[in-house]
Amino acid sequence: MSEAHLTNEFQYSSAGHRAETAISGMWLFLATEVLFFGALLLSWIYCRHWNQAGFDAGARQTQLAIGTINTVILVTSSLVYSTGLAFMEAGNTHRLIQCCAIAWGLGVAFLILKFGIEWHRDFAEHLFPGQDFAISGSLGGGARLFFVFYFVSTALHGLHMIVGLILVGWIILRARRGEFSFIYFTPVVVVGLYWSFVDIVWILLYPLIYLVGRGS
Amino acid sequence: MVAWGLLLVLLAAEFGASFLPLARSARPCVLIPAVFMVVVVGTAFMQVKLGPTVVRLFAVAALLWLSILLGLGSLDPMTRTNYSVRAENLR
Q: Residue A129 phi/psi, 5° resolution?
């Protein structure tokens, strides 16, 4: 680990102050992300309220098994990453790298299931709200609105996943270079916050997409 | 590990609740376990309690502004009354 990580720039009173600032900064960023995804939640409330039958008809066409497996995958990846963070707090960089690699692999598995299999099936079954949309009649309008929500929300979440994968990969590279120790590992904490937030977004999207309209 | 187990239990509860014969307007109740899952991730994995005080301020502020966004945004659909209009009265 370089000495630079133990010192602090003029605007910080100590290395601990610098770490607290970085962690607080990430929380502030996540607060703005809450409002970003909040608008998406509001669109779901609004569209479903006026088109309940059609919206639920659309929800019943989604791939429940894939959605559920993906939820388990993301929850597990958050556990694995936080386990790696605990190892880092004890100074075990080797275990941190292993945990980050597993979390990264779980993230990739999520994206493959979501976009490689689920979206592929959705397009094959004409569920993209275009000209040859599969659901017609009185339920067609609401179902189209549901699939607009579905594709926009999963694409935005997927984009956040890709950013998260890049960040976890960056942590692996820095850990391999020996840049972290039990004294300095702030970037591991900050990236962990982002990774868990992406997990939280999916935890809320999962029932909105797959469950609420399922049994109606 | 306890948090992970709790998350899986809540996920199973949510999954099972989705098959209950609830009225269409009551079906968003299926989201309740998801809210608890968010609390578990926030406390166990993001450790909101252990960070600096300002972290908790940001977390509470995010929830406050989210509740204002969703509350004000939902007022119209939740309170609007639609009256039927006869076709011959439409011009």
A: -70, 65
Q: Which of A175, A173, A171 is nearest to A191 (CA)?
A: A171
Q: Indicate the DSSP class of residue B30.
A: G
Say if residue B40 is in the same domain as residue B59. no
Does residue B40 share a domain with residue B60? no
Report pTM.
0.91
Note the pLDDT tens digit of each residue in A136-173.
888 888 999 999 999 999 999 999 999 999 999 999 99
- Residue B57 Cα, gap to closest chain A Cα (Å): 9
* Residues B16 and B41 grouped into a single domain: yes
Count of positions (residues) in chain A: 216
User: Which residue among A38, A200, A215 places its CB closest to the CB of B18?
Assistant: A215
Say what the ipTM of the complex is: 0.89
Instruction: Please give, rounded to a whole number of angstroms, the shortest distance from the CA of B88 to a CA of chain A.
Output: 23
| CATH code at A13-211 | 1.20.120.80
What confidence category does residue A4 fall into, taking pLDDT thresholds of 50, 70 and 90?
low
Mean pLDDT of A86-105: 95
Alpha helix ranges (H) inside A90-139: 93-111, 119-124
> Does residue B68 share a domain with residue B31?
no
